[in-house]
Design a protein that fits this description.
Blueprint: E1 11-13, E2 16-22, H1 36-53, H2 58-62, E3 70-81, E4 90-101, E5 104-113, E6 116-129, H3 139-145
Antiparallel strand pairs: 1-2, 2-4, 3-6, 4-5, 5-6
Length: 148
């Protein structure tokens, strides 16, 4: 978030994060409908900006600023595609923390257009160390994510 673009990272509201994403031509398939793989990118942006607004930055994790070097790796993702989105639609990507335990974070994400649910995803993220093995999320980071 910057002074020039205060909403660039979306906003935290009522215990969840909301990020506006416009659908561009590159996000669509030959029929003009959003390609299913584009939702993975939209949801990733939502998760990244959720972390950013909660004060957890990927570069700080990788540099070991919270103890040892850490990263987040998507372990599992279930996506339901309910309705098509098309070029120029503005989607709201909602991200809500469902569970945070040890080395596991579970999030619920939704893509909505004008309040209409387009797609939803249940995402399990693993916290990993520099060696690629699961590691417990430091309490300082967990505390930042819980109230968000």
């Amino acid at each position: 978030m910057t002074a020039r673009w205060p909403d660039l990272s979306g906003r935290l509201s009522d215990g969840s994060h909301v990020l506006a994403v416009r659908v561009y031509y590159e996000d669509t398939d030959f029929t003009g409908v959003v390609y299913h793989g584009a939702y993975v990118k939209f949801f990733e942006r939502g998760r990244s900006d959720f972390l950013r607004l909660a004060g957890v930055h990927h570069h700080a994790l990788a540099e070991g600023q919270h103890g040892s070097a850490l990263a987040f790796a998507v372990r599992h993702m279930d996506i339901d595609f309910l309705k098509p989105a098309r070029i120029d639609d503005v989607l709201e990507i909602g991200t809500r923390l469902v569970e945070l335990r040890g080395a596991r974070i579970v999030l619920l994400q939704e893509a909505q257009r004008d309040g209409d649910l387009i797609a939803s995803a249940a995402v399990t993220v693993a916290v990993i160390g520099a060696d690629g093995r699961p590691t417990r999320l430091p309490r300082t980071i967990a505390d930042r994510l819980r109230p968000a």
